[in-house]
């Protein structure tokens, strides 16, 4: 099929590459290059870089609401547009332009976690599973009918970064199945149920400071759910330290919340149980497993973390 691909971040790249291997991607739409790095030079998005490596024409209009942008989109005469974390709202004229409309690769099991941060929110909320939904797009926020879903278990120490990568690959495989069945006319659209709707609000950096007074399970979810970005953190001797992976323990230390309970960085939490810190990062340094981190930053039993 003639496909327009619309996406911007790393999450979208495997889907673009998979589609380009089997279909005619007539254009890629993504966000414009943004200033990045120490020199603040404009840096193309991961999708733009991938598209250019594949020799595909790239467009990055600031808006799709102008008549000119909509006419340019329609002139591509696409069979379908595939959207994956693009970053712009698609007006109705754009949604209607391809012969088969626009479909979205969404990183949750809709209707749970519509919105901006479905991967983070699934871990933060302690969901046992998540997955990918291929959805027919309409004007509402992730409200369109579902075409295909695939589930993925969330294990207790799984981080948002690791889950992101798994769902990215899962979405790339699922979109190929969806396109094949859409071309054959064998993929019915199923309306989303009205029950179970939740919204994945954008992550606020204010959520990142660790509150040791919470139950250990919740602290572990906060750490894993905010890893690698923005990164949950605590302070020790005035230094901010990020924690990038943790595991809730059943061990009850008898220590007050925030106290290091052993020499392997189990930390007491508000319910009396402990959370073990598995990966940490000092400011300006790389992430390290606990044993390596402790060689440079001793946090012995009895230390109180703020």
Secondary-structure map with pairings?
Blueprint (H helix, E strand, L loop, with lengths): L1 E6 L5 H10 L1 E6 L4 E3 L4 E3 L2 H8 L4 E2 L7 H8 L5 E5 L7 H5 L5 E5 L7 E2 L2 H7 L4 E8 L9 E8 L6 H25 L14 E2 L15 H10 L6 E5 L2 E14 L13 E3 L4 E10 L5 E2 H7 L10
Parallel strand pairs: 1-2, 1-6, 2-5, 6-7, 8-11
Antiparallel strand pairs: 3-4, 7-9, 9-10, 12-13, 13-15, 14-15, 15-16
Helix pairs in contact: 1-6, 5-7
Task: List key phrases describing it.
306 residues, alpha/beta, 8 helices, 26% helix
Gyration radius, to the nearest Å?
A: 22 Å
Given the structure, what is the number of helices? 8
Major beta-sheet overview: 7 strands, mixed
Tell me, what's the shape?
Answer: elongated
Helix and strand run = EHEEEHEHEHEEHEEHEHEEEEEH
Structure class: alpha/beta
Helix share bin:
25-40%
Main β-sheet, spatial strand arrangement:
5-2-1-6-7-9-10
How far is the first residue's CA from the last residue's CA? 56 Å
Arithmetic mean of pLDDT: 96
List the uncertain runs: none
Say what oligomer this is.
single chain
**Got a strand count?**
16
Provide the β-strand percentage band: 25-35%
Report on the structure:
This protein has 306 residues and is α/β, with parallel strands linked by helices. It is 26% helix and 27% strand. The protein is built from eight helices and 16 strands. It has helices at 13-22, 46-53, 67-74, 92-96, 118-124, 160-184, 216-225, 290-296, and strands at residues 2-7, 24-29, 34-36, 41-43, 58-59, 80-84, 102-106, 114-115, 129-136, 146-153, 199-200, 232-236, 239-252, 266-268, 273-282, 288-289. Strands 5-2-1-6-7-9-10 form a seven-stranded mixed sheet. α4 links the parallel β6 and β7 (102-106). α1 (13-22) runs parallel beside α6 (160-184) and α5 runs antiparallel to α7 (216-225). The protein is elongated.
């Amino acid at each position: 099929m003639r496909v327009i691909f619309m996406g911007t971040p790393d999450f979208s790249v495997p889907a673009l590459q998979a589609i380009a291997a089997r279909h005619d991607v007539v254009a890629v739409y993504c966000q414009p290059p943004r200033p990045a790095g120490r020199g603040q030079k404009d840096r193309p998005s991961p999708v733009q870089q991938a598209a250019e490596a594949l020799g595909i024409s790239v467009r990055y209009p600031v808006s799709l609401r102008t008549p000119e942008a909509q006419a340019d989109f329609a002139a591509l005469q696409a069979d379908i547009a595939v959207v994956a974390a693009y970053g712009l709202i698609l007006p109705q004229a754009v949604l209607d332009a391809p012969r088969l409309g626009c479909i979205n690769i969404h990183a949750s099991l809709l209707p749970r976690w519509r919105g901006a941060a479905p991967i983070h929110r699934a871990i933060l909320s302690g969901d046992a599973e998540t997955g990918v939904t291929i959805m027919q797009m309409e004007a509402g926020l992730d409200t369109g009918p579902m075409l295909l879903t695939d589930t993925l278990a969330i294990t207790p120490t799984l981080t948002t970064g690791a889950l992101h990568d798994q769902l990215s690959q899962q979405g790339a495989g699922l979109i190929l199945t969806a396109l094949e069945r859409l071309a054959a006319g064998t993929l019915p659209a199923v309306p989303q149920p009205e029950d179970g709707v939740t919204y994945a609000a954008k992550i606020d950096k204010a959520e990142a400071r660790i509150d040791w007074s919470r139950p250990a399970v919740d602290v572990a979810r906060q750490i894993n759910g905010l890893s690698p970005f923005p990164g949950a953190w605590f302070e020790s001797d005035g230094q901010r330290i990020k924690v990038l992976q943790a595991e809730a323990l059943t061990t009850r230390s008898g220590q007050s919340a925030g106290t290091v309970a052993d020499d392997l960085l189990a930390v007491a939490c508000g319910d009396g149980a402990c959370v073990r810190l598995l990966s940490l990062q000092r400011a300006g340094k790389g992430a390290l497993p606990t044993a390596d981190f402790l060689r440079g930053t001793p946090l012995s039993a009895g230390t109180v973390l703020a």
